[in-house]
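Reproducibility note. Readers wishing to regenerate the assembly model reported in the main text can use the exact inputs given here. Chain order matters: entities are listed in the order in which they were concatenated for prediction.
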Amino acid sequence: MAGKTLYDKIWEAHRVATDPGTGESLIYIDLHLIHEVTTPQAFAGLRAAGRGVRRPDLTLAVADHNTPTENQALGLAGVKDPEARNQLETLARNVAEYDIEFFEMGNINNGIVHVVGPEQGRTQPGMTIVCGDSHTSTHGAFGALAHGIGTSEVEHVLATQTLRANKSKNMAIEVSGTLPEGVTAKDLALHIIAKIGTAGGTGYVMEYRGEAVRALSMEGRMTLCNLAIEGGARAGLIAPDETTFAYVKGRPATPKGGAWDIAQRYWETLFSDEDAHWDRVVHIKAEDVKPTLTWGTSPEQAIPVTGRVPDPADIDDPVKRAAVARALHYMGLEAGQKIAGVPVQRVFIGSCTNSRIEDLRAVAEIARGNKVADGVRAMVVPGSGLVRAQAEDEGLDLILMEAGFEWREPGCSMCLGMNPDILAPGERCASTSNRNFEGRQGRGGRTHLMSPQLAARAALNGVIG
Amino acid sequence: MEPVRTIDGIAAPLPDRNIDTDQIIPASYLSTVTRTGLGAGLFHARRYDEHGNTKADFVLNKTPWNGASIIVAGDNFGCGSSREHAPWALKDFGIRCIIAPSFGDIFRNNCTKNGILTAAVETRLADHLMAVARNPSSCRFQVDLNNQTIRAKGKTYDFSVDEADKNWLLSGLDEISLSLRDSDRIDAYEQSWRAAAPWRFA
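Running the prediction on these inputs yields the following structure tokens for the assembly.
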């Protein structure tokens, strides 16, 4: 019998039942993260059906998507948009009624849901984790099976602590060798998506493997798994190891004392067996990865910072040719032009992809003693209150403000164009977030996804490069 | 949920790949606390200009496709954000079926929960069906879920659909009610893990 992948092992350990007819399984959920935007309708559904929340203790709520990134100390009174305020009040009412732990806006533990879970130690290896947010794949960095769900599924998990799901196929992303100096997890993630395409992982759970992945910090691993969804995968996974255990140990919700030893012994069994069956294997040479950014309106439209944007005339397939021409037009770029030197008006350092302490340190190191270019507005939005506090302890806030960056309060901010932080039409933004879709950061806004290092340089130079 | 068996209606062609859920319904519509009324924001940037005027050249603004109940599109339809507001907006507009070579994984799930059929076809067939739908005289399609067929311009084509999705759509059953019938098994699962992995239930 063939061995098992890490995904196979976690799936089996959480399978409550399987329908022999359709193959659909009922999967137990260890951690349900919730936020204000994708839950009001789920709680309304529960209430209408007279149902309760099965495991409030395995549920954690934050307010992150619809929150302003300044004046959070004012509480909901500081939220100017009445619809946003109503949504935040609705969450507060729902968690109070169903007795769910909640880090409200302004609480130091609050922040972006995918930063808070790991930070609190709620995210642990081997778990199943869901949230009504597609970037839940982030938690796969810990060897947890984690993915986004819709609001109907949120209601299902609240009521039953399970999810109905079909097993995905297994994909291995083998990254051999060592990333070159100055090349980050973000560059690797964009390089992989450019190679496999945004639908390349559809139907799969991807496990990132190999020497270059093992060498990443937990922050880097979270960045990599965060972007698994942009490659179409249901989830991304990295097997837990000493780096993982060192990060998890001692956090508020992690096991202590003897329980830790039992837990770690179990976690050490969470790896893909050598003879495991893979439905697809993708090989990446770490040495080939360069500082990479997107030029277009899909995360797969990524090129090295030294490269040129494509020319539709070089593309035979009429559908792809039209897609490239449309993206160039939207982005205001000329066919075949160099991406370096393109001027930016905005810079966004933040989001569940790159708002952790390591990201902020990297930006501060580049910013130290320099100035944000004239005509550029650069924002730094820490991923959580704790990240913000740590950065302030390290003096990063002063370095950044001295250089002309805005030092904001935590939240999803400009990643999704929902709260007050948005682009104006035609504005070009160097962004450390995860989606460059048309209008994602505001109608007509032009987003280039890149690492914190590249974004910091864009802020100082006023141009990409 | 009403069972879904057949969809007989106007098919609108959207010949783009990677139509993401941000395009289907932008974030500015996500502050709602209800599931209703989102049809007004469907494909907002493509249906309306920056002043809110209707763009006459967008297919869903043109007769007869403004009454469409079927969309035919390129691959990876519904990629991106998990927002269930996307199928809510589609349904509110009147869409009951999307035909495409492939779908975003979470979006496909969300459609099933809302009685929208995601019918997968080969890229060449999707391209052909978009060409057929572009002609007002041949844009009326009949989709039969049980037989997994699409009838367009006098011809019948097969589509594929996830077996569990098909089952839920045909039955119209409430998933949560059914899952709650398994409460004993969920209890037993929790008991077994409480013993084996006490830290999980500390």
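We highlight two features of this model. Chain A touches chain B through 73 residues (CB under 8 Å). The longest helix of chain A spans residues 82-98.
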